[in-house]
Amino acid sequence: MRSSKDELRTKEKKLVYKFAAGRENYELTVPIEFPVQENPSHFHGRLMLLHNLPCFIEDDLKKSLIQFIEDETIKDYDRESEKALGAVTSGEVDLEHLVNSWTKAYTKTTLEHARPEEPNWDEDFGDVYHDLIHSPASETLLNLEHNYFVSISELIGERDVELKKLRERQGVEMNNVMQELGKSLTDQDVNSVAAQHFESQQMLENKWANELKQLTNIQKQEYQEWVIKLHQDLKNPNNSSISEEIKVQPSQLRESTDASARIYEEQRQLEESFTIHLGAQLKTMHNLRLLRADMLDFCKHKRNYRSGVKLHRLQTALSLYSTSLCGLVLLVDRSEEH
Description:
Layout: H1 4-8, E1 11-21, E2 24-34, H2 40-50, H3 58-89, H4 95-109, H5 121-133, H6 138-179, H7 187-235, H8 242-245, E3 270-278, E4 284-292, H9 307-318
Antiparallel strand pairs: 1-2, 3-4
Helix pairs in contact: 2-3, 5-7, 6-7
C-alpha cells in the first residue's frame, strides 16, 4: 500500500506541443506537475494568454493538453498499482489487513451493501406519544414507564449497597494502617493504600455507571419501538391483537416491599385551588392551584404507585409534547439573596 509520502509526492512532466503558423514551425514546451490539481480548461486558458498563442490552435491545444494529462495520470496509477501488488506478493503488506480495508471501503461506498439508515425517533416520537397518551393505551404507557423506573431503582440500590460495603472495608483497612503509622509503616505506605482505595472506588463506580447507561439505552430503545409499533397497529382497524397489547394487568406492576427504598415517598403537601375570571367584556376563566411543596418533587417518579400518584403522573403525561403552556412560580423570601 502507498504511504502518505508517496501520495503527496509530485512529479514534473513536460508537454511538448508543435504547431505551424504560416511557413514557420513552433514548439511549445510546458512543465506540468502531477498529480494535476488544476482544472485543465483553466490551465489551457492561462497558457493561451501567457504565451500569446494564435486562436486557430486553441481547440487543438486544449485537446492535446487534456489527453496528455489523462495518459500520464493513468501511467502514474499503473505504476503505483504495480508497486502495491509487488509489496503484497513479497509479504511487505499484511494481506488480511488489506482485505478488511477494501471490504470496509466497498461497503461504505456501495448502496447495495450499505447499512440502512436508522429511523430518527425524535422527529415523530412526540406526535406519536401525544396521540397514544390520549387513547386507551395511556394506562399501559404509565405501567411500562413505572416498570422501567423500578428496574433502574433496583440497580441503583445494588450499586449503593456495593459501594457502601467497599467504603466500610476500606475504612477498616485505613484505620489499621494509621495505627501502624510510625511503627512498621511510613507516610508513603499510607499514600499508597489511599491511592489503591481511590482506584478501586473509581473502577467500581465506572462499572455501575456503564451498567446503568446500558440499561437506560435498552429501555429507551424498547420503549420507543413499542410506542411506534402500537401507534401503527392502532391505525389498522383490522388488527385483532390491539386489545391484548393495551390490556391493563395490575399484577404485572412491579412493586418494591423494601421499606428502606421508599426514598421517593410523597411528602405531605398543602394546596388550594382557585378559579379567576379576567377581562371586562370578554371574560376568560383560569384555574390556579397554590401548592406548598418541593419544586423538584414534580420531577420525581414516586415508587409507591398509589392511585393519587398515578393520576398525577397521568396529568403530567397528558401535557407532554403539547402546545399548552405550563409554568411554575417559585416564591422566594426577600431577605434571602440569590
